[in-house]
Design a protein that fits this description.
CATH topology of the largest domain: CNF1/YfiH-like putative cysteine hydrolases
Shape: globular
Largest sheet: 6 strands, mixed
Number of domains: 2
Strand order of the largest sheet: 4-5-8-7-9-13
CATH architecture of the largest domain: 4-Layer Sandwich
Structural class: alpha+beta
Strand content: 15-25%
CATH superfamily of the largest domain: CNF1/YfiH-like putative cysteine hydrolases
Order of helices and strands: EEHEEHEEEEHHEEHHEEHEHE
Number of strands: 14
CATH class of the largest domain: Alpha Beta
Number of helices: 8
Distance between the termini: 13 Å
Radius of gyration: 19 Å
């Protein structure tokens, strides 16, 4: 790896494996996309996205066509990236990556990754079978157990044993900053999550209230990082094999993109893994 201005956050997941998250530094984008954004779906200028992809690929020592990024839709669709995928025309590749929120591969030198800006990125590595996964787990994906689905898909595709997996939970919004409505709490509860461990209520002042009885209101806060850790452990991943970044995007907006701080028309963190 080169020593560039990109200032990537690297994770020690295993020898011979590169796992990382981008920061906001070292790219060409401007404004709320500044400066290292490689996501073409968030309103950035195409020329900046292309330039940033070139910078990141150079930092990683790969060609840009080996830097894989899906168009996520907060679902649970996974896609296996085989050697044949890299030989496909760009138009076909984009079609195959549409509506995908998790990527799996066992191809050497291919970087799979997901985009986030408060949602939780999860990386998986199967050392026994040399296979990886990159997962986008927003609240909808987490509630729908996309991490569990990705592990199940790795088991089918690569004969992965969850007990031998290594995992990284990357930068995302912390519980104290992830305020949600009652409907989000209800969705997690209905899905069978242990809300006594994941959620807490905080009293918030409602400055816009005209009714004195509504000046203070209770709001739920959910711990998405813990929810995904619980899913990993329930699937069989050993607790000691789960590496949490402990980076809150909302609190560290100068270094990491946060949609709640910058708006949805802003850049995205790319969290990826390469064999």
């Amino acid at each position: 790896m080169s020593n560039s201005a990109l200032r990537l956050t690297y994770y020690n997941i295993a020898d011979g494996v590169c796992a990382f998250s981008t920061t906001r530094h070292g790219g060409t984008s401007e404004g709320n996309h500044a400066s290292l954004n490689i996501n073409p779906y968030c309103g950035d200028k195409p020329e900046h996205v292309a330039a940033n992809r070139t910078l990141l690929a150079a930092e990683l020592g790969i060609s840009t066509d080996r830097l894989i990024l899906p168009h996520q839709t907060h679902g649970t669709e996974t896609r296996i990236i085989g050697e044949e995928f890299c030989a496909l025309p760009e138009r076909i590749r984009q079609m195959l990556l549409e509506g995908v929120d998790a990527l799996l591969t066992n191809v050497e030198g291919v970087c799979i990754g997901v985009s986030t800006a408060d949602c939780i990125p999860v990386l998986l590595y199967d050392e026994e079978h040399r296979a990886t996964a990159a997962i986008h787990a927003g609240w909808r994906g987490t509630q729908a157990r996309i991490v569990s689905k990705a592990i199940a898909d790795m088991s089918v595709a690569y004969k992965t044993d969850a007990k031998k997996l290594k995992a990284v939970i990357g930068p995302g919004i912390s519980q104290k900053n992830f305020e949600v409505g009652d409907e989000v709490y209800a969705a997690f509860e209905a899905a069978g999550f242990d809300m006594t461990t994941l959620a807490k209520q905080e009293i918030k002042r409602n400055a816009d209230a005209t009714d004195p009885s509504k000046l203070f209101e209770k709001k739920w806060h959910i711990d998405l990082t813990l929810a995904n850790r619980q899913l990993l452990e329930f699937a069989g991943v050993a607790p000691e094999n789960i590496n949490e970044s402990n980076i809150c995007t909302y609190d560290n907006v100068d270094n990491y993109f946060s949609a709640r701080r910058l708006g949805t028309e802003s850049g995205r963190i790319y969290t990826g893994i390469i064999l």
